[in-house]
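=== RUN LOG ===
request id: a7f3
mode: sequence -> structure
chains: 1
length: 734
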Amino acid sequence: MSRTGRGRRQAIPGPRVVIALLLLLGLVSVMLLDGYLRAEVGDDQRIRSGASASDVPDQVLDGGPLLSFRGGTARTQSVPDKTIVLTFDDGPDPEWTGKVLDILDDNDVPGTFFLVGSMISRYPDVVREMVDDGNEVGVHTFTHIDLSYQSASRVTREIAQTQLALAGAAGITTTLFRAPYSSANDAIDNYSWPVYQKLGTLGYTSVFIDTDSEDWQQPGVDKIVDLATPKSGKGASVLFHDAGGNRAQTLAALPRYIKQMKAKGYTFTTVSGAQQQDDEAQSGQGGGPPATASTAGSDPEQAAHRKAGTTTLWEGRALVAAVAVAEWTVPGLAAALTVVGVAVLGRFGLMLLLARRHYRQRNRRRFVWGPAVTGPVSVIVPAYNEKECIAHTLNSLASSTHPIEIVVVDDGSTDGTAEIAESLGLPNVRVVRQENAGKSAALNSGVRQARYDIVVMMDGDTVFEPDTVHRLVQPFGDPEVGAVAGNAKVGNRNTIIGAWQHIEYVMGFNLDRRMYDLLRCMPTIPGAIGAFRREAVLEVGGMSEDTLAEDTDITIALHRSGRRVVYAEHARAWTEAPASLGQLWRQRYRWSYGTMQALWKHRRSVTDRGPSGRFGRVGMPLVVLFQIVTPLFAPLIDVFTLYAMLFVDFKASLLAWLAVLLVQLVCAAYAFRLDREKYRYLLMLPLQQLAYRQLMYLVLIHSCVTAATGGRLRWQKLKRTGVVGSPMSGKENR
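=== RESULT ===
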């Protein structure tokens, strides 16, 4: 892959970022909608009681249960004698409302249902059946809050959203309203009175009750029937509930109550039917049959239902459709994330178990790979514009305790890198110049120029400890070993970004390598420090230019050729990690995208047979699952955790998040112990989880979008400062 244009800062492809952000925004919107429907976030549970009613007219407090403002003046109406208005609150409910409707239909009586908008949005079919059966519906707010505590804009929004839900569910709007936590007229106080006045000017009839079944308290069927029965043949607005809890007693009491009241000569009607009867009685036109659901509201001014306007209708349908999406998405996402969470925790457990086993196995006194490797090896240093680092790199190699030759492949540098390397006058250093052709080509050139059977590959910005090469090549005492991965360390760890990467290297990379080593499916030999049998590299065609992750590509190719790849944790290399978020993004974007390219290139490894097929059978699934799939879902886990904190149970969700963080802290602490690192850096772990990890997730999402859209990414040169000047010894590190 050509390095042309490395020095230019390449902007992140805008359209792909927009696509990724839109997907995340869509998910967040769906979850917010679902949470709002459940009315848990900021849910105001306050219920006002005992407030003064000095501003409320006495005729309203002492009047009938139907309050309207026709002509701008407050007017109350009573339900005519021997007439019952059955009202139901808090629905619709998918379990109970349908059964209530069946009872009403069987007994040929109508009901008036005051519906919660969020429930309408979730169960539109129940509302449609309710209206089609001739029942009336009214507004009971969208989130069932006490409106006397709310601002005028909140009150307007609660009513408007409920009307939209009604329009989307049944194609209608309504003029009936009942406030949550209201009962008889004497519940009106100075705080709620302005609300009723405002609604009255908008044409709403506020419906109260004068008879309460108290079925919500579940006092028993006999008690419910008794409480719902009006005294002395008076008419009544009777309250039942079709939602909000177990309504088994309501279902048992309702048919018995209806039959009992009919036997006493009562008739049943709706709110608008009662209003019409009262109007006729006061105008001297009484004497006709009581209005029912089919006859109530024959006067357009009296009709409770209105056909929704075109705009309202389509907005309502859009709301119902969005809610349907949320109703499917959130539970499905919860199930998927549960699986992912279990997989991640399982991985942590497997990492700890295998890392401990790896440490105990590799640090036994009698453990040896085979005959000691003492012969000279070739160290290949590909370099492109590395003037800040090349001297530090070569000076560290010159201190090697193992005999080496150093092959510096200058890949068309324009900053004098080759001249600096030559001016050092170090022994056993050869500088090979070539036109700019890319890192893979530079490494292949170094392999061809190498004089020895074992070649060590490193980056031009990396420094080795004196014994690094010796420790790195010892596994070649085993003839089955074809390549060795070293232990890459972050040298510039004294910044926040550096500390975050330091934690990632120790925990995410090196702890992983211990696990993969024991499973014999190491996916990547880091470009900063790796060793190879020269013949093995040549057998697989050298470093390929097919992907941006030549290190992963060559590692998988070696597995497929039947070579064993191992990890030498004591062979340390110190590298300069990206010092800014922009550089970090570009580096990890290239790594992530290159890894996907390499996995796709070697996708047929899953069908390989014999020892050479172990990576395809074990490594490929693990890498895809834990380096692509679970990290891809990880941002959703964080979003869902925040959702649960806001809408479900803050304390339980926070404790769950802290528990996962504790598991990660334990894993990180153990990894630091194995690598003999200072624990103080783990103080940065919570912040890393909140900030750095999110950036890595976005990088992965960006890479997936690029891969899905067929985008191409060019290799980019990161800016180096040469801050990693000399290797840190293990003692200094501790």
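=== NOTES ===
Residues 511 and 671 are 6 Å apart (CA to CA).
The chain has a mean pLDDT of 86.
=== END ===
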